[in-house]
Amino acid sequence: MATNNTKYHLEIQTHRKNPYGLLRSSYREDGKVLHKNICRFSGLSLEQLYGMQAALQGRAVMKEDFNITLSREYGASYALHAIMKEIGLDRDIYSRPSEDWVRASTAMVIGRLVYAGSKLSLSHCGSFSALWEVCGIEGRVNVNTHCYETMDRLLERQDAIQKNLAKRHLREGMLVLYDITSSYFEGEYADSDIVEFGYNRDKKRGHEQAVISLLCSKDGCPVAVEVLRGNTKDETTVLGKIAEIKEKYGIEKVVFVGDRGMVTQFNYAQINHETIKVISALTHGTINKLREEKVIQAGLFDEKNIVEVISDGIRYCLCKNPDMAIKEAATRQALLKKTTEELDKIVAGTRKTKDSKEIRAGRVVNKFKMGKFIIFNKKDDNDKKDDNLSYTLNEKKIEQESSLDGCYVIYTDVTPEDMTACEVVASYKSLIKVEQAFTNIKTVRLEVHPMYHKTDNRIKCHVFICMLAYYVMWHIKQRLQPLFESDGKGAKRKHTFDQVMETLKCIRKDTVEFQRATTNVVTVPTDEQNRILQLLGVNI
Question: How far, in Å, CA of 195 to CA of 229, rounded?
Answer without folding.
Answer: 6
